[in-house]
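Lay summary

Proteins are chains of building blocks that fold into shapes. Our project writes down both the chain and a compact code for its shape. Here are two examples, one after the other.
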Amino acid sequence: LVNCIQRRVSEAARPYVHFTLTSFDVVDSATAWRLKQAALQVIYVAMAVYGWLAWRPESGTAGFAPRRWTLRPQLAAGLAVLALSAITAPLLGRYTEAVAPLADALGTWASVAATWMLARRVLESWIWWIAIDAGLALLFLSQELAFTAALYLAYAFLAIAGWRAWRSALEPAA
């Protein structure tokens, strides 16, 4: 919607179109992505319940203890993300108004994998989040969604902070 309107207004007004139509863009996107987002929210709620159960004191995990993954499980997770993206990207392209179905599928499935890793206290989940958030920031920037791109860039910086904090928790006390 924003891009269509920007093409029809004067050059001087174009920078303001995105700012004033952001809410309409959100509503339009929400309508187009309703089913995908609903399914994704169900997955995130399930992950939140799993994380809550796994991190409770009654679960037998005393205190905070991040763990490391070797390359093998990370490659397995990456291959699962690629396979699921290859399956869902054509569906997104056909049944939604996705501008970049493959990038959206990759971002979605990588986010699900990173959320699962985070719930399992895997240090490398933060590296995944840095890459995901930076990649999505570039995707949104390419779609002229500057505010959304800035938000995802901020998420990337938060992921850097999370990675540093967990990494320091793994280092032996001096």
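And here is the second example, written the same way.
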Amino acid sequence: GKYQILNVKDESGFLLWPTKCAYQNGTTYPYTVASSPNAKANGDLLERFVASNKKHGIRSGIYYLGWGNFFMNITNSGATYDCSIDTPQTREFIHMQLCHLEELYSQYEFSEIWFDGGAPCLKSYEDAIANLTLFYQGKRAVAFQGPTNYPNDIRWVGTEAGVAPPDTWSATES
């Protein structure tokens, strides 16, 4: 069937929906469409995307990068992901990411969720993402490069150059 993917959060940390998620100190995460000068005219881009898709019989999917957020000063340096090191900053990042995902999952049904490498972070974080995805989305959502313990996860079989070994398959139930 037909579906579209919208990048709702990449490594910059900017969100295409006005989140209600807050830092552990109670301050709402500010780096969203709500802080945009065009917020009144354009509003919640994710909500508009999902509504338009539904109107035209197209399934919705999202891209949500789970391992980085420049706004929160979390990224990867060489082969080390900041989120793989247990620090107060990492714990704040994980708290916010899980809140974002729960907010998305509890409001929308997605046919595919692109994680771009899953969560090469702390195992507890990867487990929490898999559990949230399964709880809210069930097995109907395909997780592309998602948490390895999510039951409907597919992996990228190639390289940045587009080369894949022969006879490489990645199948799902949906």
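What can we say about the second shape? The CA atoms of residues 86 and 122 lie 8 Å apart.
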